[in-house]
Amino acid sequence: MSPAASASDGRIRSYEDFARVHAYLLAASGIPPPLHERLYRKLADEVFDGGEVFAVEPCEGGRQRRLVLTAEDPLGKESDVFLVDHAWSFRLPDALKQLREVPGLAERMAGLMCVDLDRRIETEESYEPDGESSGSLEHVLQIVEKERATIQQRGSDSAAWLELEELGIDDDMLVALDLSSKFPVCIDKAVLDGLPGLEIYNSHFTSKAGEWALSFCADIVGADNPCFSVEGTLLESIVTIDLSDRCIHKLPEAFSPSKLPSLSKLNIRGNPLDQISGDDLLKLFSGFTQLQELEVDIPGPLGNSAISIVEALPNLSLLNGVNSSSIIESEKHIVDSALQPRLPEWSPEESLAERVIGAMWLYLMTYRLADEEKIDETPVWYVMDELGSAMRHSDNANFRISPFLFMPEGKLATAISYTILWPTHDVHTGEECTRDFLFGIATDPKEADIIWVSMQVDSEVKNAIGLTDQQYTNQFPFEACLVMKHHLAETIHKAWGSPEWLQPTYNLETHLSPLIGDYCTRKRDGMDNLWIMKPWNMARTIDTTVTGDLSAIIRLMETGPKICQKYIERPALFQGRKFDLRYIVLVRSIRPLEIFLSDVFWVRLANNQYTLEKTSFFEYETHFTVMNYIGRMNHMNTPEFVKEFEKEHQVTLITETEQRHASLLYSRRNSEQSNRRVAMRSSSADRAASSITHRILLSLFLFAVRSESDPDLLLDYCVADTAAAASFHLNGLPCIDPAAARTEHFATSVLSRSTNPSATPFGFNVTLTNPATSLPGANAQGLAMARIDLDPGGMAPPHSHPRASEVALVLSGSVVVGFADTSYRLYTQLLRAGEAFVFPRAMVHFLYNMDVAAPAVVLSGLNSQSPGAQLVPLSAFRTEPRMPDEVLKKAFKIHGQDVHRIQRNLGG
């Protein structure tokens, strides 16, 4: 039937109809045109034949799945197309509700995302006679535990038996079983004593490792010629050697430039190398004049900085697969080409629905509906079925996928969503099928799907650079520095730096890495880590999300450009609910500055009581205040709100003097133009309403001062405002109703967990209690506790706490402590477990673990909930902006190159 014949009712009856109705969708999807007709046939007949060509296999110890081509014949590039069903489609606010209410949905998603390992009983493989299933990690672990119990009964000399093939144990599951720790053996010493010349044992270098071991790792000797005598000339020919994961504590003496003069590629990942210093290793490697490529853990035996390694080895062209020049240019301290896959994490206490919410960001896809008139305000998120979700990421992917809406009736209302899968390279039987999760940045505009520019792109520009209508072009003018969220944040940062009244704000298009660093630092320090994602170009809280999940933050970028701001987790509340005040401001002139402000504001209130329960982040009416568009709004006029607010928070009416002080909030001094003025005019004739703005703003400040206190000032300094009648500062956190206090508010387990001291250049790490996150009952009590983990030989370098005295109690190890007073007299003591020492307030002090073989742990008490900390080395060499070189050179009697060397060593 011709397209004209099908036009009467719009139904798709032929390929021509399909191509006409879906023309834009086909072009946007990127599906090769030769596959369009084959796609139509499969869509029309609902042909899901992927199961005949592919198979889903468990991997990573059952915590992930992969897709493998099982067809007998290879699959050629762009030779076929496959339909992938959508197992779950939803709008983000509805996700948790659907998981809880739709029967079987949470169970299916948990199985698909591999977050039900502790609950799942596999029945896919074979069955044991007693009815137990085999092939699952849970079942195999049960068998391992039974064997272990049997050995404990019979004695350590008895044997344990585990049939790998019958139980369906693959390599990944074998690693996950961790048999070496469950069944420790005592034959290592006997073997090494009986074979004193053994150089490699269980893939690990022994203390006797030498030229034979090096030759084995360079593939000169092996299974075919294990007894081949090694000659010096053979070692001289070695170009590449892989020493990774050999448990090497010290490199063999044979590993030297004289023995291996041709060495150009070296891999030493996964080795402790703890019997040789990093400086000595760098000195050794610098002698290999032909060394071009190096693979090493960072942080690791060569230090914590890739830049320092590249500078110490100037002949190096690639470090961990990254070009050395790009490391220097980008100032990357950490580079790693061997990252492990990110797997879902959950706790046994979490429900399946909560586990899925945390894991789904590793599987979700998204699209946004649109027609000729408008674009849908909120994106649709979806999870592909088991086949599609098993496709893992690869930078060299051999498949591509794209969402596609099939409209059998020719209308968007009847559309059915699919994901289309097709090969982009030749794929052979047994090969894993992968896709590229990441967007790429093209240098040629003609090759890009999205063009990001700051200029107007008209038809002439398109023709000049060869752009097509299928390419998307942004049109956000940079002069929108006030009305666009990302430009507003940038404007504030340029004008004011990082003021206290602006939450940490990141433009995710340009500052994703700093955000991740901030997130990880907050997580390490036990600080609150809730963030709010806001689209640049949308209002009314459309596509705005509150989350504490880093994966969610990264994936939410896909629904449009956004900023990410630290969420204000403890806001002022009205009757237990969030609120905001909306003002109308008119700027008539910049120079001189003239602002017209309406004193009559209106209040916007959330509908639900405020809470930080994880499940509440999906409740719009709890965390947002714009209710005009959801059909349920609690309106309150301004005078009534002011009266109720003052009554709830015990604030009284303010005087005319205080009103004038509040009005200073709207003034701005400018040294370049002293005749600037601020014009504030009321838009209402009602004199009683004209002071409401001043009253409510000052009330908020007075409420903060009344409800937040601490015996010690929690600010580095408080500059007096001599021009005003009163000054204000914030100290501590707001208090809950005493009747709502619970026992857990006064207890914490945060100090029971050890941290990684090796993460810092000095070999120490600190866990500090925080009323906001770990010990609410300590708020305003003027105290804090800290756990200090010290590496063997690690040190908390000279530092001070400007707002606190400290008492340090050694829990384990031997620690030298000391402080210097203002007359530069040093008081020092060696402390052992159970012994304590006091550091007076603000005195520079240190802690040093003298034991180079064992770690140490110190517990400290401080008499301020915000003691502050200034590390002397960082205060001198890591300030922002940097302290002038001349100051440092004269203060420390050093040279300019010494300044830069110290800054690099400190990670600056």
From TrEMBL:
Alphabetized CDD domains for the sequence: cupin_OxOx (cd02241)
Pfam families from the UniProt entry: Cupin_1, SET_TTL, TTL
GO cellular component, one term: plasmodesma
GO biological process: plasmodesmata-mediated intercellular transport; regulation of root development
Recorded superkingdom: Eukaryota
One of the record's GO molecular function terms: manganese ion binding
SMART domains: Cupin_1
SUPFAM superfamilies: RmlC-like cupins, RNI-like
KW Cell membrane (keyword) present: no
Record key words, sorted: Apoplast, Disulfide bond, Manganese, Metal-binding, Secreted, Signal
Signal peptide limits: none
Domain Cupin type-1 per the UniProt entry, residue ranges: 748-900
PROSITE patterns named in the record: GERMIN, LRR, TTL
Subcellular location: Secreted, Extracellular space, Apoplast
Positions annotated to bind oxalate: 801, 806
Binding site for Mn(2+): 799, 801, 806, 845
Function of the protein: May play a role in plant defense. Probably has no oxalate oxidase activity even if the active site is conserved.
Subunit-level organization: Oligomer (believed to be a pentamer but probably hexamer).
Similarity field: Belongs to the germin family.
Protein name: Germin-like protein 3-1
UniProt source species: Dichanthelium oligosanthes
